[in-house]
Amino acid sequence: MTHGPDPEACRDVYARPGVRERRFLADALRTETVGGMVLLAAAVVALLWANTPLSDLYGTVRDFHFGIPALGLDLSVQHWASDGLLTIFFFVAGIELKRELVAGELRRPSAAALPVVAAVCGMAVPALFYFAVNAAGNGDQSGWAIPMATDIAFALGVLAVVGTNLPSGIRAFLLTLAIVDDLGAIVVIAIFYASALNLWALAGAFAGLALFWFLHQQLGVRGWYYYVPLAVTIWALMYNSGVHATIAGVAMGMLLRVRSRDGEDHSPAERIEHLVRPVSAGVAVPVFALFAAGVGVSGAALAEAARQPEAIGVVLGLFAGKVIGVFGGTWLAARFTRARLSSDLAWSDVAGVSMLAGIGFTVSLLVTELAFVGDAETTEHVKAAVLIASLMSAVAAVAVLRVRDAKYRRMWEEETLDEDGDGIPDLDQREEAELLAREQEAALLAEQRAAAARGARPGERPGGDTP
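^ that's the sequence the OP posted. Answer follows.
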């Protein structure tokens, strides 16, 4: 007896995702793309502000302190942005990670292997570049994690500006790659960039997280007026514990329920993410960029940065290390596993996406601030290196992907064609119909097997009587 191909046995790299997964990705990517454009604008404003006669005002606003000193929360505007607002970004990242692990591509080992291998290689190789450069130049090795991060919002924002039309399979892979990348950054920040621990504050944060889980998962309590004060308390305790405060956001995001129950159209995680994601992409991350990206880019400053091994290591790590790591990881997965490159794509497409992964901004700037505490000069130079490497990666990616733009446009038009004008792409309707037909066929087959097990024909009542 001949069986059909096992979908788990051979998987296309960058294959087009299913209808339901694609619709979720479309919503997420639409928000991230708009947020990326706002982020790009905020970065440009920061650079202009910091390199004009108003630079002193920029520094005054960025370093202005306010808060509640008695609670250990007397922070500068810059730290409120990086430790406070950026927690919202990591909260959304936690939801995305939970969803991918429970209901998305990462729930199946065969599917998860591809982005995981690419992401791990895309983190390890840039770190090795940084280590090598700084070992040769006697630089500070504490910044090794800076070139590991990929900024998905900035990458998609760049794509939106230049008008490149990526197929949904590549977009899905890029988003999943960034989620795994975010997980790596979260682990690195929590383990390697924590200050002296306050165990009492940390225990209080864990107690708050336990209460959050009990209210949400066990009691099903709803209402922002319960969770917002609790979330702020957890965040404050995490900040005072010595663990970076953004970890609180990740933890709360991963505690949300991502599967809907009877009577629910959407899970709590979907509803909350739908509300919070625009705040993250449109407010939290751009405000962080406004007070993190304002670095001097004069000729003298850039020349000095070009002689600094820390800055050189970051540029090479993001621009070259990311390409080698992501492309190499994808090639290794396709060469030594049952995965294969989708027939719609070429390896030049993979190279372009690998270059997009070199756009490291939000998390890279955050890690820069954590890695060189007390060394303002190195921090400024490395931030400039992050911006330069991200720009170089974006330009290189656009140059490669624009060559394939005509093919991308044809694929996008096929995916979005709606000849009957009902607002639903015809391809989605065909796939939905095929999915329904397969489900009906499976149900009929199950009924036939059950009838055969009972010794009766399908539709025949027990005892041989027909209805």
